[in-house]
Amino acid sequence: MSDNSLTRSETTATQPVPYRGGGFSPKRARWVAPVVFVILITIWEGGARLGWISPIILPAPSEALNALIDLYNSGDLIRHLSASLQRLVGGWFFGTLLGVAFGVAAGLFTLARAGIVPLVAAIFPIPKIALLPLFIIWFGIGEESKIATILFGTFFPTVIAVYGGVDNVDRGLIRMGQSFNLSWWSIVRKIILPGALPAMLSGFRISASIAIILLVAAEMIGAEYGIGAYILLAGNLMAMDQLVAGVTILSLMGLTVSWIIGRLEKILLRWRV
């Protein structure tokens, strides 16, 4: 072998190898979502102004914005939004709290799992809005029936998410904790709950979306104030600009909930690389 070949081989052998074990870490592209929204709204507005989209079918975004401004100036926006948020927060909070408790119990205890999992599998497929008349009979036409509908609807997906997260925690980590003579509570607090937290937060996203859907459906039945009642009235009056404004409020509520849960993920899941 010639000296030049040896030199090239030595140079190749001493070159640093790029690190490829960074894991799955998607890059942030915060500008993409605003650009997509701007493009869609621009196409929508242009199509409405050029007459390609009938205002009877779908009004222009500017008309919906004017309806939203009028709703705010009249003071009804605060009334509708505050009523909806009270029902949403109350129903989702208590439904999630009970769902976490039952999901953790099903994941940790054999008897609880044997009783809870089949019950959840039997009741979860039932459309919860179909039970609203039953809740009205039980709790009346007031706030209790609406909150109960949201609570009942968010409870079951939370149980499933929490139970799945607890059940899928790496058994090797649990055995390691046992080999270090950690107590049962320490294993639950330091290994099982942190390991199940990503699945739990994903379940919170799903249950929050379900809560908003059930909120609108419940408010369309016997509610004077609320975003669902506002959308129902706008639909009955064929006021499409007001209807789109109401749907926009619901979309903003969903984005806000998603942002809050995203912040929680960044705070609570810092340990995950």
Describe this structure in words.
By secondary structure, this protein is mainly α. It has a single domain, classed as MetI-like (MetI-like fold). 76% of the residues lie in helices and 0% in strands. The chain contains 11 helices and no strands. It has helices spanning 3-14, 32-49, 61-73, 76-108, 110-123, 132-139, 143-167, 171-179, 184-219, 227-236, 240-268.
List the helices and strands and how they pair.
Elements: H1 3-14, H2 32-49, H3 61-73, H4 76-108, H5 110-123, H6 132-139, H7 143-167, H8 171-179, H9 184-219, H10 227-236, H11 240-268
Distance between the termini: 46 Å
Name given to the CATH architecture: Orthogonal Bundle
What is the domain tally? Answer: 1
Class by alpha and beta content: mainly alpha
Kindly provide the radius of gyration, computed on alpha-carbon positions and rounded to a whole number of angstroms: 26 Å
Q: Can you tell me the CATH class?
A: Mainly Alpha
What helical percentage do the residues reach? Answer: over 70%
Q: Which fold name corresponds to the CATH topology?
A: MetI-like fold
Uncertain runs? none
Biggest sheet record:
none
* Strand percent estimate: under 5%
Number of helices: 11
Which features characterize this protein?
single chain; 273 residues; mainly alpha; MetI-like fold
